[in-house]
Amino acid sequence: MRIYRNLSIRQKQVVWAWGFLAVPILFYGVIRFYPTLNAIVLSFQSWNLLGPREWVGLANFEKLWADPVFWKVFRNTFMYLILGTPISLILSFLIAYQLEKVRFLHNTLRAFYFLPFLTSTVAMAWVWRWFYQPVPIGLFNNALASFGFSQISFLNSTTNALPAILLPAIWAGLGFQIIIFMAGLRAIPQSYYEAAKIDGVSNWTTLSEITLPLLKPTIVFLVVFSSIGFLRIFDQVFNMTTNNPGGPLDSTKPLVLMIYQTAFSSFDMGYAAAQTVVLFSILLVVSLGQLYILREKP
Question: Residue 27 has what pLDDT?
Answer without folding.
Answer: 84
